[in-house]
Design a protein that fits this description.
Radius of gyration: 24 Å
Shape: globular
Strand order of the largest sheet: 1-2-7-4
Protein name: Cytochrome P450
Pathway: Secondary metabolite biosynthesis; terpenoid biosynthesis
Strand content: 5-15%
Organism: Rhodocollybia butyracea
Main location: membrane
Helix content: 40-55%
CATH topology of the largest domain: Cytochrome p450
Structural class: alpha+beta
CATH class of the largest domain: Mainly Alpha
Number of strands: 11
Cofactor: heme
Amino acid sequence: MRRKMLTLLIAVIMLVIITFVLKRRDSSLSNLRGPAPSSYILGHEYELTQQSDVGKLEFAWLEKYGPTMRVFGCFSEEVLMIADPMGLQHILQSQNYPKTKDIRLIAERVFGRGLLWATGNAHHRLRRALNPAFSTQQLKHFVPLFQETTTQLVERWKEELKGGSMIFNMAEWIPKITLDVIGRSAFDFKFGVLDGTSKYNELYCAIRDMFLDSKSPSTVTVIYSALRRRLPESLSFKLFTTKEDRRLSAFLTTAQATAKVILVQKLEAQTPGPNNEGDKDILSVLVRALSFDDARRRLTQDEIISQMATILLAGHETSSGSMSWMLYELSKHPESQTTLYEEIAALRARIGYDTPLKPEHYDSMPFLNAVIKESLRLNPILPMLVREASCDDTIPLSIPVKTNSGSVLSHIPITKGQRILLPFSVYNRLSQVWGEDANSWNPRRVMELQAMLFGIIESFEFGLPFEDLDVQRIPSILMVPMIRGQPELGVQLPLKVTQRRGSSSA
């Protein structure tokens, strides 16, 4: 049986290679400049996953070829990499550039058939059902929950510090508060991870270790990932299963089991019916969709569970990762941290130290918002997206590029099936967009992160534990922090935390 599977795999690889060779003859990218592949089999796919820091290769290519270039996938597949502002806008606002097959397969194994898996009409249907849960009015109800959970973290740190300083691993603490915030705001459910009373440590550990096997994949894993784009779905996970596959599947099992427990409790507590206003958490909105008469808006229990798994991971990783990187940037730039603290102190002096903050208070703080936006720009949690053209098209460019023949292109013609890489880490540092200091931190150039950052900076000062701390931005499925030379310790972001004077101990 194993010999038959190996023979089939070799045949598939040969078929894929022949397909790519024939396709290259008619490629619309053949005259576009870009780096030469170091390997015919691996193209640039392997070296892009082995970078010591996110975007290092792409930034070097940007300097040489501009923001639009040709790179190579496995088996010499020609791939368009584009960081041009107008080109990105054209692709992301069009329905003609869905997720690639392999990305959808991964999304299904991680989230089930939720919003991040769906495309086309299925995606629009799920978006329509979820929109009421994310309206501006709905989100305002979450601010007190963000503040309450942040206060719990503040009190825990005060207990630990006792007015002094310690080294805290942000990659351990911030995910805990984020999971508790999601539990309260999304599901009206207390995970209790931060206070140590949680029965859901398995879920926390599954999320924490989610992408450990996604960094630095082997050459075999990279090749098989490329084959998945061409293999029938029925074969994709039968021929070859990676450690990453097993870890992602384990998360889905744990997340769905947790989601079912929470959903059962919600169904028992909530009066059924589409017109029942009920609680304001996201799950309550989704549960009401069970009773809609309109099939286009109605959800099944399985769909709700998939949305819950999506919210658990996508919401957790984006918020906890963004918050950790913000504290890291503020540790590296104490002058910005001082300015932010002074803005927070001025607001407190104006409205009172016991007054709960409202959304308009956060909106009135320009430097707080500048810090958030600048950190998100320099440290995008999802540094690259992959799309595929579903039809022939022409992509407009705001920054024309020179071809191999010396001509200049302001539009890129592409054919159906063309794979496209969208490197946000590169776009976010384009000097044509952000100025000559695009690679520098400069906050002078939204509600959950504001609440968390406000509460933490009000009580604590952050610094690097030692001057030469070398934090790598590791390219995984998401960007994660690790200490250079210590990969065996996993995700880490140690920062020195000092309690501010005037911030009373718990």
